[in-house]
Amino acid sequence: AQQEIEISRRVTLEELPPVLVLHLKRFVFEKTGGCQKLIKNIDYPVDLEISKDLLSTGVRGKVVKGQRTYRLFAVVYHHGNSATGGHYTTDVFHIGLNGWLRIDDQAVKVINQYQVVKQTAERTAYLLYYRRVDLL
Question: Which residues are listed as membrane-spanning (predicted)?
Answer without folding.
Answer: none
